[in-house]
């Protein structure tokens, strides 16, 4: 019998919007695959990141913040993605912000299953003015659920992340690795391109346009080191289209140019990017469009 058996398992990172789930995932796997933004609810898809070391393989499933209201079909699809990702995993990482536990956090906590380990991560400890506040806060939250472990971290400043990795490892099942070591994400470049452009739209105009905005990659052609990408930003109404395009097309140009730079950095080659804005009335309730976006 081998003394140290290899461990592999699925981990879901959950929490209300803006607690730092994407930042945590990025810093844990050290590659920008999930998109962060100061605006809430930018993560709409399920994204996997994989970390492999000598003893274990951690397969992360990043989820959108739990949706607490069913506004339309899209929200329902998002909710299903979240619930599925929670059901299939071995360990759940529940992220909250240091010093803050509000109604939204409570709603997420209520939906967590009680039949598998939930690790409480208290993020953004760097923002605490008074470090002594942390202990009573931990004691208060610890009473709400039977957490398998509690780890305070700063995802942004990479503080205590190795402690978190060890806590997760201790709850992973014994398994051989499921993925080849050099596989970092199961998402295609096409998907990542859409995510990068969507992130720019949210950053620039998130407050003026509701999140019923989506991005579709209509063409993705690789010619040697050059990628030719045609993207389409779908909106619900023509006034939203005008907002996104901006005066003399300036906003759209800025967003496309920032997205192109990020794509070039991520893909390691030149990108030729064309972006259109189209109005698709009621698209958020259109099943065929949802399917084309990757929701079943
Ligand atoms: N000071 C500080 N800021 C952080 C830390 N972690 C994340 N943030 C910031 O918090 C904001 C939200 O982070 P995200 O990673 O996008 O949060 P999220 O939970 O994935 O958000 P959604 O995608 O909306 O669900 C960003 O501006 C991050 O830079 C941290 O440890 N310290």
Please characterize this protein's 3D structure:
With 296 residues, the chain is of the alpha/beta class. It folds into 2 domains: 7-169, Rossmann fold, CATH 3.40.50; 189-292, K homology (KH) domain (GMP Synthetase, Chain A, domain 3), CATH 3.30.300. It contains 9 helices and 9 strands. Helix 6 runs antiparallel to helix 8. The protein is globular and about 55 Å long. It starts with 6 loop residues before the first strand and ends with a helix. The site of guanosine-5'-triphosphate (GTP) has 24 residues, from helix 1.
Give the N-to-C terminal Cα separation: 43 Å
- Overall CATH class of the largest domain: Alpha Beta
Apparent shape: globular
How many β-strand stretches?
9
Give me the CATH superfamily of the largest domain: P-loop containing nucleotide triphosphate hydrolases
Approximately how much beta-strand content do the residues carry?
15-25%
The main pleated sheet reads as: 6 strands, mixed
Summary of the model, kept short:
It is found in: Cytoplasm; Cell membrane. The protein contains 9 helices and 9 strands. The strands form 2 sheets. A 6-stranded mixed β-sheet has the order 2-3-1-4-5-6, with helices on both faces.
